Amino acid sequence: MKYYTIFFLLLLFTSCYNVERNCADFKTGKFEFNYKLDGEDKTGTFIRTDDFSVDYFDNKIDSSSVRWINDCEFVLKKLNPKSISEDDAIHFKILTTTDSSYTFEYKLAIKKPSQKLRVEKGTAYKIN
Fold it and tell me: What superkingdom heads the lineage (predicted)?
């Protein structure tokens, strides 16, 4: 009986925890993120408006349209894809926020039957 009481109290306290998400603060602005390319750490920058995102990474510039699903989820689709794989839309979900950053996960917006669904995480820092 003692173990059931302890389990119940732990369940009660953990269910009250609520992750803070002020996603509207990160809908637009200039952001920075870190990524690895061929084992080398790199930093990329992107500027996002309500409708577009311009990415600057690895000495390249890329543009995407932004479609917001709600304050914490959006879909990016490249405007000028150079290959079939770049034509796929990517679904982003903001998981947590702080005063200057947000943690997100992303995956293909439409799962391909021949591929395993891959979900990646990252953190973006607001720089303006």
Answer: Bacteria
